[in-house]
Amino acid sequence: MYSESFEYFRPRTLAEAAKLLKKHKGSRLLAGGHSLLPAMKFRLATAKALVDLGAIAGLSGIKVKGKTLEIGATTTHAEIAASPLVKKSCAILSEAASQIGDIQVRNRGTIGGSIAHADPAADLPTVLVALGATVVAKGPKGVRKIRAENFFVDLFTTALKAGEIVTSVVVPSYRKGTGGAYFKHPHPASRYAVIGVAVLVQMEAGKVSLSRIVVGGASPTPVAVDSPEDIAGAISDPLSDTYASGEFRVHLATVLAQRALATAADRA
Ligand code: FAD
Fold it and tell me: Which of 22, 20, 1 has its CA nearest to residue 12?
């Protein structure tokens, strides 16, 4: 299966990438290519030109910045899964990244590509909303910081504006006494999340309290709820397909949330 013909550019700087996007009408950014290229081959997406972010220095890597981690947009899922910094500061992010697809997908796919694609069955959006992450994007009007909960707007739709490039994702580190868990029911063929649930709890003075439960895969964007029992009420019109009905998705989300909550409390 072949896509339509397109031009290909591999800029060395962000400024050059921005120029190419502006100059070539109908161009798109290319990161790992694991969502865009299949969509182009199926003719579900078209691009007159691809602007590959892979050679831009400084767009990849994981750095400590105060009480946060700054993760470059082209950092791969495999790098996030293996990072001791991520495991120490916000372990559910590496727990989720390690469950994405298979090793080939994790070696090519990037955090920036995953969130910009905004697939409801993706793992990272759910976890980034739970962690209270911020997406940093650079566009023609300068740099914008967008909270993850406002970034995912609808099915395959984000708050990014034309010409904006995600440069990094800033993730707050766990506070002392935070415990977390990410549980997922993977699709048996693709490993995408039919349902993914991220939970964070806080241990204070020997007592565990719930910080956040976020459910992915049941609705167009991740949904935050107060308890596993609230999921059915909060997701009244769940996504449904031949593999999993809406009712089954809500049931899975409720059960996975209860299990994740117990595990997060153990880890706190
Ligand atoms: P690309 O495909 O290159 O780009 C995707 C979109 O994002 C394009 O529209 C592109 O223009 C845009 N884009 C890319 N980078 C930026 C940027 N920096 N700024 C703005 N826009 C940008 N995902 C999961 O979460 N869980 C899974 O279990 C899972 N399983 C998979 C199994 C298979 C077989 C495959 C092929 C994919 C799977 N994926 C899964 C998706 C995978 O995680 C991809 O990494 C992700 O969907 C897209 O990331 P990418 O870097 O490949 O982006």
Answer: 20
